[in-house]
Amino acid sequence: MAIRQTAAQIGGYTKRARAAAKFRQQIPMHLMLLPCILLVAVFSYYPMVGILIAFQNYNPTKGFFNSKFVGLENFNYVYAMPETMQVLWNTIFIALLKIIFGLLVPVIFAILLDMVRRSFVKRSIQTLIYIPHFLSWVILSGILVDILSPTDGIISFMLKGMGIEPVFFLANEKIFPYILVVTDVWKEFGYGTIIYLAAITSINTSLYEAAVMDGASRFRQVLHVTIPGIMPIVVLMATLSLGNVLNAGFEQVFNLYSPVVYKTGDILDTFVYRIGLLNSQYGVATAVGLFKSVVSFVFIVAGYKLASKFAGYRIF
């Protein structure tokens, strides 16, 4: 019995010694990671104290801990506001359209671009479609306002040439949500195209050779080889994008919308901006933001679960 206890003590000591030695070896890596941890703690976790504002009648002069606590009163106020449901619907509608077409367009374009045999032409096209990704919405919104202007915009000139009355796209509440979707896809599809092109190049070329030997046309090769080959990446990107179902793009909407299109173009982020910063209703704005964050967190968790199940994607 004593021998067993001694062996167990030696074994425990050996494990602790190995763990301590391993930790000493990894000290430089931990030190390299320390600045990143500090940045996340200061700029991501410390601001979470502001969640308290959602349950307070917040007064900036009194701070977080001295403002009056009102419980769920801010949430009830938001729910009772007549425009809340419309704003929520606008956010979900615009975000879902962006997610759907933000997946379809890059996949289709990547397949078409992969068929281009001249490498110089392929690289040139790839560079051109990738440039808008690096431009901010402040710049692009100015360009779009000029292009879509009903008086001197290029589209207005084209419509006038065809005998059609010009349309003020950015002031038409029926068209405005689709303008947001189209311009967002135009800005970002170059980035997605690169991802799917990389997935296409990883497909075993022998599969295409076998398809050619079987007499498959180019369309059949795409249908039975290319699409199944990139489907895991498509599923992965689709499931991960679920977390953005309430992110319809504040920068884009803020720079393009106006009170004329609030009915169909106002989203949760711009709604929070107007309530919180313009109307100084900090508690109400924080309540809306907290609601959005909780729903987005649920969708992100669900997205990772689906990605793990259908695409084998795991972080931990």
From TrEMBL:
Belongs to the binding-protein-dependent transport system permease family. Its main location: membrane. PANTHER family: BLL4140 PROTEIN (PTHR43227:SF11). It is a multi-pass membrane protein. Pfam families: BPD_transp_1 (PF00528). This is ABC transporter permease subunit. Gene3D superfamilies: MetI-like. It is found in: Cell membrane. PROSITE patterns: ABC_TM1. InterPro entries: MetI-like (IPR000515), MetI-like_sf (IPR035906), UgpAE/MalFG_permease (IPR050809). Residues 88-303 form the ABC transmembrane type-1 domain. The chain crosses the membrane at residues 31-55, 87-113, 134-159, 189-210, 222-246, 282-304. It comes from Paenibacillus sepulcri. Keywords: Cell membrane, Membrane, Transmembrane, Transmembrane helix, Transport.
